[in-house]
């Protein structure tokens, strides 16, 4: 199979895997009352099915990636998808809450490593000028999971029982596994092990200041958007005046913004990585401030919701590409660490938003907090770029990024 014919299929297989993983992460939110009632646990205990998953993602994104750094990437991706299937199968068959939680944790372990390694593989499947776009195509599966997968998964669970949703996700995992096995090239740079000396070489990337700058920008920049989004249902109903029944449809609009922003951010980053990140973070800050100021207007809220999703997720491909750029000789572990940084940002944004509400500042306060985090992320980015201009760096990522051999 030639590389030309393999490219679309390989990226599609990665996107299907990303779709299944995104569905696993988010669909539980709509099914939580059913699961809690079925296992006779309180809402707060059932909430560990969400927070436990997030913690497992953060751990797995670094630890599991480090454990497999010496192995060829395609077999690793196949193994991660098997782990995903086993976790969701365990959830579908769970006879008690502990087994259900174990299934969630097992499924989450593959999350960070799959996106981290998958981003490197996706970048290796295309020409250098299209790498950010390829990463965006893989993450498109995650955005589609939010737009279509979560509403339909919730609907399926409500009509046929929550277990049916996890059976469907298991089936998606099997489909992704077959796609990865058949469509990702079995030889060449996309599946080669890292040339940086295994784990020691991968860890060496973390001696570079720009790698740490990139992680910090990810935590702050993406955390700002997620902090505003975490309590969005309260903002929509208590401030903007929407009926509770309209919230799912408004979230579909938000998801549509995610999808468009992800692809647009990838294309723009292929033209200019630095300019794209600066612009997107600056505009996202403005959008969040505008949203906080106009949240009492339903029309303005709808527009802000779409723009928040678009510019929030437009950061993802360039943020992932930036850390791979500065860890180009050994990008796998750094890429996985950046996925963990996204989840750390999610937790930070949600925590700060909760603090503002607990302080009695109202349901627009998380949006203000999110704007502050995003602005801080922009400031860190500007400092990082100034530092990069003053510090000699190794050549920009070319063949090293995709582990091509001489």
TrEMBL record:
This is MFS transporter, DHA1 family, arabinose polymer transporter. It is a multi-pass membrane protein. The keyword Transmembrane helix applies. Its main location: membrane. InterPro entries: MFS, MFS_dom, MFS_Efflux_Transporters, MFS_trans_sf. Residues 10-389 form the Major facilitator superfamily (MFS) profile domain. GO terms for molecular function: transmembrane transporter activity. Pfam families: MFS_1. The chain crosses the membrane at residues 12-33, 45-69, 76-95, 101-127, 134-153, 165-184, 211-234, 246-264, 276-293, 299-319, 340-361, 367-384. One of its GO terms (cellular component) is plasma membrane. It is found in: Cell membrane. Keywords: Cell membrane, Membrane, Transmembrane, Transmembrane helix.
